[in-house]
Each structure stands twice: as structure tokens, then as C-alpha cells.
Amino acid sequence: MDAQAQTVQKTVRQSPPVDLTKPYNAAWVKGKHIVITGGASGFGAAFVQRWALQGASIVIGDINTEAGEQLVQELRQELGNPNIWFVCCDVTKWQDQVKLFKEAVRYSPHGGIDCVVANAGVAGNDILQTPGDLSADEPPEPNFKVVNVNLYGVLYTTHLACFYLPRNPGSSPCSPQTDPAKTVRDRHLLLLGSVASLAPITAQPQYGAAKHGVLGLFRSLRCSSFVQGIRVNMICPYFVATPILIRAAKIILAGAELARVNDVIDAGTRFTADSSICGRALVIGPPAKAIMADDGQLVPSLTGEGEGEETGIWECYADDFQAVDTWTRRWVGLLGYLESAKGWTGWAKDMVAAFWASDRKPEKKSA
């Protein structure tokens, strides 16, 4: 990585690429208060079970009241952890999410939120490219539920996380130098992307567009969220056998190897437990051995031959600050200057004056 890219990484407090050979301690989640959307089934329920087992307190937001309440009851009895709650929440409704976060603060043992997981997602038959009867005067109105849940719901969750995480009592701004073994209070936003964030997905344009949007959100946030001291990470799972995998996808993928749920949970747990990981993304795919690419990165082997044990977890977008455009570099530098500068009131006044001068219309003179 060149010196300029390293400077950008240092300014935005991005940690080095994740060393997946280095063990972490899942017990580091103990005592953290976590909010997770879509936590009643699929990845969400698996995250809840893993983290509750380690002693975290968790608030589940999900539209499925029956499944959510049943999961809470079962885990409380099984684990003896009373700090698990359910709040009915439709992530596409702003007030539902506001209620979820307010309830989460009320339930919190220490009065704040350490981690927010934007996990809620749906898939379904996408009729965007199938307008129906071409002899009709106009096509039927499309259903954009997939985009509303997978993108707009994530944006609502992110907006609320950026409000509540910096208010977490006892927390400090994120830093790659943090010792996770000694850090309980945190400010962590974990985004659930998909392999569809990184590549096109056949017959699912809405899902692909939404998950590309989550990737864009992640890459933008990690350049500026350090101002609020929030660390932002993302996981991008390949196809996994969960309820979100629709029948058509199962037919297309028949006979192909899928990603493992345990690898998804492991990647999410590493991010949630290790408070020194900031601004990184992991893709989870079918298990494979590693080979060295031309750029020096370890990548999955397509032939089955390679080094070490098979793994399904890989770093993605590890060095993309090398190719970041000039505008973003300057913007990051500006944010860093604002944070460290002393007496920036004068600068703010000059900026206001500059904007005012550029927006004012010239006065008309009378003849």
C-alpha cells in the first residue's frame, strides 16, 4: 500500500486487514448491549444465540412477533440469561425503529448501546424485469419491498445508530489501538451486506441494487464515522441455507456448495468482540484453500489446491484506499483537520460567508 493510502487509513482510523489466522476471544462480547434487527430467524437468531451465550444483553427487533418472543423465552430458559428482549419492529417504518432504539436504551443495564447490527433483510420473486402483459396500456406497479427492507431499513438503522452509539456512557471513540480484552463499552455498527454487494445477482435486480447500496454506505461511512468515534464493519455472505434463500435460488444452486452459517456467525462475532477492528469487510463463501494472487493478497483457490486449511472467510476491499479518488482524499483530510484544529470558529464563519456569497443572487439595479 502506498504512503498516501496509509495516510488516509490512519486519518480515518481504519485498522489493518483482518488477520484471520489470529484467534479472538468470543467472550469479549460479555457485558455488551447489542441491538439487532431481523433477529428472530436466520443469521439474526444465530447471532443472538451465540452472543447471549457469551453474556451479552440483546434487544431483538423483528416484524415476526411470534418467532421473536419464542426465541427470547427459549434462550432465557436455556442460557439463564435474563437480558434478552424482543421489540416488534418493521424496519421500513421510521417510528418502529425509533421505538426499538428507545426500548433498547431502557432495557440496557448501563443505559446505552454498544453495538447495532443492521441485519434485517428479505428476498423474493422480483418482477422488475417482468412487466406482464406487453399489450396492456401500462405495466402493474412494482413491489419494492426488497429495496425498502434491505436498503431503506438499513439507512434508518444507521441513522439511529449514529445518534445513539456516541451517547453510550463510558464509551470512547473507536481506535485500532484499543485492547478488546479490556474494552466493554463500544460504538460499533455492523452492516449485513451480501456477495450481491460485490457482484451481480441473476434475476434479483432489486436485491442486487439494495446490497450494492449497503456496500456504498459502508465505504462512505468508514471514511467519516470516526468523527463520532464509531467503528463500522460489514460482512458479505454468499448463499447460505437460511429462510431468506428462495425456492428459485435453491433450484439454481442445487449441487453447488454453499457458505456455512457457522462462518457467518464467526465473522460477525469477531467484528463484534474485537473492538480494535475498524472499517473492514469480510466476505463469507464456500470453504476453500488459499492461493497468493498477483497483488500479494490471499484469495480462494478455484481448483481445490492451495495452502493451509480450508476457510470460508476472506477479507474484501482490503486496500481500496489506494484507488480512492482525489475528492475523497481531500474530504477525509478536511475532516481530520476539523477534528484536530484549535479555535476553528473562525474557519466556520469563513465557510458560512463563502456559501452565503455564492448563493446570493446579484442585486438588480434600477435603470
Automatic annotation (TrEMBL):
The keyword NADP applies. It comes from the Eukaryota. Gene3D superfamilies: NAD(P)-binding Rossmann-like Domain. Keywords: NADP, Oxidoreductase. The keyword Ribonucleoprotein does not apply. Belongs to the short-chain dehydrogenases/reductases (SDR) family. This is Uncharacterized protein.
